[in-house]
Amino acid sequence: MPYLGKDWRSPGWSWKKTDDGWKRIIFYGHELEDDNKEIDLKALCSDNKENVFVGEVCELATAKRKKDLYNNNTKSQFVFTDKWIYVQKGSTKERHGYCTLGEALNRLDFSSAIQDLSRFNYVAKLFQLIARSQLRNLSGAAQKNYFNILEKIVRKVLDDHYNPRLVKDLLQDLSSTLHSLAIHVGRCVLVGNVNIWLCRLKTIHEWKQQLNNLHIPKQICNGVSFKELPLHTQNNILCKLSDACDIINLGQATPTLQSLSESSILWKKLCHFHFSDKQFCKNLVLSKSDHVDWKLMYFTLRKHYPMREQYGDTLHFCKHCSILFWQDCGHPCTAIDPDSCLMPISPQHFIELFQF
Length: 356
Hints:
The relative contact order is 0.09. The N terminus is likely disordered. It is built from 15 helices and six strands. The protein is an alpha+beta fold. It starts with 14 loop residues before the first strand and ends with a helix. Helix 3 packs across helix 6, helix 5 packs parallel to helix 7 and helix 12 packs parallel to helix 14. A four-stranded antiparallel sheet has the order 3-5-4-6. A two-stranded antiparallel ribbon has the order 1-2. Among the domains are: 186 residues, no CATH class; 62 residues, no CATH class.
């Protein structure tokens, strides 16, 4: 005779036949991993009444103890290394509850993602958007995990000197948001003691000072240097840059690069990369000779429209399975043509995915 739980898909409870009839086995603590052991409830009741759990209460208490163990032994409250998660937006007969932004931040392995240079900019940009508008919507565990990963991001920049400008902007936005919430709003929206947030503000200020004092040593190269390359090669390298700040900073290195960085063709390609023709027509900027000033056009369009984002690796969303995953890791898809169901997720789209 089968004994099923409330969920008809589950394998059912564990039962044991006794002289008095069938009795359900109730697990406790480490006994959860052994289906053949039974707990003596009378002995537990005599020692500590808090150790007695029945049915689902026992399972919830054991899960909580595991989380507390992770919290005591690790810096982050929850330890997950998932490469994909199921995005649940509402309750159904098969699934109850929904997936929040904080849960996605906890479960997806962002700590390992920042070690990959192809994902670093993506994670940093996502954290910047969260700092601007979504920090108050995170749970306490998600906020703790957020700052732990942020510390690793700052440490990687200090060690590897990789993209410090992006992380400086991230810390600046985060500092402004925290100052506004901690000073003006306070306990209404912040999870935890206000003094903890003031300490975090102090830590962010220290990170900003460390990045401002960051000195990138000059690399010794025994081969061909950049300035020794042919002009067309240098120009091709400049055309591969998608950030105007990088082009301007590179143009300050040598007079030759200064001339190449002012090329109208270079700024025209940059405008066409980030903006559409329709946007050009609304904000056409002409010089005195009635020619388009593409450099001025670029900075004018940047004030009115968002620029195109480009990342080495991004999260993808499967519309068939409703699973969010890293592209190179894949996910268990059941569709006949999985590639037709994939959709790249930008950092802004990632946040919108969890807005209900």
